Amino acid sequence: MAHDDGDHRTAYEVLGVPRAATEEAVRRAYRRAARQTHPDVGGDPAAFRALTRAWETLGDPEARRRYDLSLPTDPARGAAGPGAGAPSARAAERPGATPVRYDPPPGEASADLAVLDLARSSQRVHGAPRPRGLLPDEHRVLRQARTLDLLMRHVLDALPAARILTGLRLAGRWGRPLDVDHAVLCGHRLALIGSVQVPDGVYTWDGTDLRAGTRPVAPPLLRPAMMAWQHALPHVTVGGFVLVMTDRDAMHTPVIRHARGADDPAAQEDLLTEPPAAGKTFLRDLLLFLGSGEHRDLVDRRVLGALVARLH
Question: Does pTM top 0.85 for this prediction?
Answer without folding.
Answer: no
